[in-house]
Amino acid sequence: MEVREAVPDDADAIRTTHAASITELGTESYSQEQVDAWAAGCESADYTAAIESPDHYLVVAVVDGSIRGFGSLVVAAPEADEATADAEVTAVYVHPSVAREGVGSRIYESLERRAGERDITALELTASQNAVAFYRSHGYERIGATRHEFSGHESTGVYGTVVEMRKEL
Question: Is the pTM above the cut of 0.70?
């Protein structure tokens, strides 16, 4: 497995991996209606813009020649009022075919390494309920929970609980 910085040509594979991760793993913690609303945002998401943005660091995990995971770090304070971190982990998703095989951890480690290179001292994120244990295993602490509209940019009107987390580096 290789974890590398994403390039614009990776956008379609990232979209496919993102949707598969949500639809097949999201039902561990959310209803089918919530998962469908969450996955709806993948179709309109502009992965290329994120890849090309100077504020984003987006990586992909390549397993046996195919993209099987991705992660994103935004080097700017999260939008939440109580945010005190310099950066936010906005994504760590893996394809269900490689779930719980260490791919997500390798992606996350790449994001944290980049944060360290940028002298970032704390990271925050908003985790789906099914990802809380993963982030706890990487040293995150829960700082709260909030009601979230899944794919809010699509105005789905479908809500669920997500968990705000933080880690000091």
Answer: yes
